[in-house]
Design a protein that fits this description.
This protein is mainly α. It has 3 helices and no strands.
C-alpha cells in the first residue's frame, strides 16, 4: 500500500493511506475538494453536540488514562472496567445525539427544498 501523494500544510508528506485506485487520501483528494468545503461550512454552523469532537477527545483521553493506570498498577482493574463501561455508554449517547441531529438537518433541508419547489411551481 502506498502513501498519499499530498504534502501537508506543514510541508511534510501526508502519511495517510489512499483508497484503492487513488493516489490521494480522502482528506487530500482533489475530487473531494467541494465536499470538504461544504462540510467545513456546515461544521461552523453547528453548536453543542453538533460538534462532538471535543467530547470524543475527552473520552479518548480518559480511556488512555484508564489504560495507563491499569498497566502501571495505579488503578484498580475493577474500577477501570466500570469506568470503561460508563465511557462506552457516553460514546453511544453521543452517537445517538449525532444521528438525531443529522436527521433533523435532513428534514430541515427537505422542507427548504419543498418550499422552493412550491414557489417555483406557483411562479411557472
Amino acid at each position: 500500500m502506498g502513501k498519499c501523494a499530498a504534502i501537508t500544510q506543514a510541508g511534510n508528506a501526508c502519511k495517510a493511506i489512499p483508497k484503492a485506485g487513488n493516489q490521494y487520501c480522502p482528506a487530500h483528494d482533489p475530487a473531494r475538494e467541494e465536499e470538504r468545503r461544504r462540510l467545513g461550512r456546515k461544521g461552523g454552523k453547528r453548536a453543542g453536540f453538533g460538534r462532538p469532537q471535543g467530547h470524543i477527545n475527552n473520552v479518548k483521553t480518559q480511556l488512555q488514562g484508564l489504560i495507563d493506570g491499569v498497566l502501571d498498577g495505579s488503578m484498580d482493574r475493577s474500577a477501570a472496567v466500570v469506568a470503561n463501561q460508563i465511557l462506552n455508554t457516553l460514546l453511544r449517547a453521543l452517537k445517538v445525539e449525532m444521528e438525531i441531529s443529522e436527521r433533523e438537518e435532513i428534514i430541515e433541508r427537505m422542507d427548504q427544498l419543498e418550499a422552493e419547489l412550491g414557489r417555483r411551481s406557483r411562479g411557472a
